[in-house]
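User: Run a structure prediction on this.
Assistant: Running it now.
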Amino acid sequence: MEAKGTTLFDRTFRDSEGNIVIIQMPPNLPILVGIGAIILQFVLPSGKLQTGADLIAYGALFTWAWLELFEGVNYFRRALGLVALVTLVALKLRLY
């Protein structure tokens, strides 16, 4: 049984300290690496370097989504991880 006074809103948007958590500042390392690699893809010429940046971006964003899904501080963050993970896999399957 859950603690008295804990609502669905609390479980969805609050962390263990009672703070509402939707975004995290500063962002964690995997998402920074992923965004950096995506930006790098736009400046690199087509070829092996761009493919490498794509793999790094995918791996970093997949790692971020996985961590959010299983270690997110609330239901919102875990749902965000699930949506990101499904989207990443769907986009990668559609491209190949």
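The chain has a mean pLDDT of 89.
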